[in-house]
UniProtKB/TrEMBL annotation:
Residues 140-366 form the Radical SAM core domain. Residues 1-116 form the MTTase N-terminal domain. Monomer. Belongs to the methylthiotransferase family. MiaB subfamily. Transmembrane segments: none annotated. The keyword Transferase applies. It comes from Geothrix limicola. This is tRNA-2-methylthio-N(6)-dimethylallyladenosine synthase. The gene is miaB.
Length: 434
């Protein structure tokens, strides 16, 4: 059977897709690049905002029509599957099976049951060993960086967030397992890993997250370690020290702030004030100048006043984030923030988002301009010779780099090369191969 997995959402979903792909390949299924060529289509879904959910339902609509034309099995997994469970069959009766986020290893059984003619097959059980997925099964996408799970789930309870529902509470992978996986990846040629969890810095798999970073950095042959995502309240002095003083830890920190107003942060149940967030950044000391800082913002949270929003704009400028992701608040089913009055008109929310993003673009351009003329190591992310003569690469600070090396020249995929930065735009750096 030929299968295709379509993934939406975050790195955890990307990595789940790699695990699911491995499970099907082990069973002798063949991966294909497009849904049109597949006999089994698996939708690996995201439900963090309403827009992500719309995309899934629109793809399901398309697949319903396709199913009328030819034999096709449709499965739904990921956060929407865990959130909606059997309700998905009501809304889209052509779905053959629903697989929860904590039941990945049940996929072959569900497919076999559906193949045997059983309808509306489902497993959304909370298997407590889901995070102990065998790395030998994972079938990685062809990327320069390898994703590695260290924790699953989240023990925070931000009032807007669906993740604790869709991913359950925290489970940590023992550090020995993490190290064994990283060593195996380096043997297979990877030079960069990204440690994954909804909240990596609450890691408790036999050591702290700071310890884990140090241990992983001792793996010979590994060049860069990244991690995502961190919660400000679990960001310790020790972690800050390791981040700024361990050469293999890439100089990049994503620390979601969400809002610059204490009143809004309280209503979000973020567990910190703006002052405490800034204090955490202060832990980085002088090392902070070497790091690129990134964050997330939610704009238009219920009850956000002009004053609250101006406070966010003020912190944005004060910290001068190198980059940020910003979203309009999206009400999610079953979350506590649904009980808050949300009467701010959408055009006001959109206007605020636009202002924030415009300002961020200026800050990002300024951050990029600081790289002009510098020689920096970047990892090549494009395969093979390139007729246009430029390659995509990534700096340690997670900047996208368009690297010129001359037409027809082949650069070593996945390797670090030295580049001299010649151009800074708000969205990328242009550079020449040194
Ligand atoms: N665990 C991480 C954290 O605490 O920041 C990431 C969670 S989520 C996958 C990534 C971002 O989506 C959040 O930081 C938040 O800014 C945004 N987000 C989550 N729920 C949202 C909602 N209901 N509406 C709009 N944005 C949301
Ligand atoms: Fe969601 Fe908050 Fe947990 Fe992040 S820390 S996943 S925003 S509940």
């Amino acid at each position: 059977m030929k299968f295709h997995i379509q993934t939406w959402g975050c790195q955890m979903n990307d990595h789940d897709g790699e695990k699911l792909s491995g499970l099907l390949s082990t069973e002798g299924f063949e991966a294909v690049d497009s849904a049109e060529d597949a006999e089994l289509v698996l939708l690996n879904t995201c439900s963090i905002r309403e827009k992500a959910v719309h995309k899934v339902y629109s793809e399901l609509g398309r697949l319903r029509e396709e199913k009328q034309r030819r034999p096709l099995m449709v499965g739904v997994t990921g956060c929407l599957a865990q959130q909606e469970q059997a309700a998905l069959f009501k809304r889209a009766p052509h779905i053959d099976f629903v697989l929860g986020t904590m039941a990945l290893r049940q996929l072959p059984r569900l497919v076999a049951e559906a193949q045997a003619g059983k309808s509306q097959v489902m497993d959304t059980g909370e298997y407590l060993d889901n995070h102990l997925f065998p790395p030998s099964v994972t079938r990685r996408r062809d990327t320069a960086k390898a994703l590695v799970t260290i924790t699953e789930g989240c023990n925070h309870a931000c009032t807007y967030c669906i993740v604790p529902t869709t991913r359950g509470s925290e489970r940590h992978r023992p550090y020995e397992d993490v190290l064994a996986e990283v060593r195996g990846l380096v043997e297979r040629g990877y030079r960069e890993v990204e440690l994954l969890g909804q909240n990596v810095n609450s890691y408790a798999g036999g050591c702290t997250f700071a310890d884990l970073l140090e241990r992983v950095s001792e793996v010979e042959g590994l060049e860069w370690i990244r991690f995502t995502t961190s919660h400000p309240m679990n960001f310790t002095k020790e972690l800050a020290r390791v981040l700024v003083s361990t050469p293999k830890v890439a100089p990049f920190l994503h620390l979601p702030l969400q809002s610059g107003s204490d009143r809004v942060l309280r209503r979000m149940l973020r567990e910190y004030t703006v002052g405490e967030y800034l204090e955490r950044l202060g832990y980085l000391g002088e090392g902070r100048a070497k790091l690129a800082l990134s964050t997330d913002f939610i704009v238009g949270f219920p009850g956000e006043t002009d004053e609250d929003f101006e406070a966010t704009m003020k912190v944005l400028d004060e910290v001068a984030f190198d980059s940020s992701f910003s979203f309009i608040y999206s009400p999610r089913p079953g979350t506590a923030s649904l009980r808050l009055k949300d009467d701010l008109p959408m055009d006001v929310k959109s206007e605020r988002l636009k202002r924030l993003q415009q300002r961020q673009n200026e800050l990002t351009r300024a951050s990029n301009e600081r790289f002009l003329g510098r020689e920096i190591p970047v990892r090549v992310e494009t395969h093979g010779p390139n007729e246009h003569g430029w390659w995509l690469a990534r700096s340690g600070e997670w900047k996208t780099v368009h690297l010129a090396a001359g037409p027809g020249r082949e650069l070593p995929f996945g390797e670090l090369v030295q580049a001299r930065v010649t151009l800074a735009s708000p969205h990328f750096l242009g550079a020449e191969l040194v």
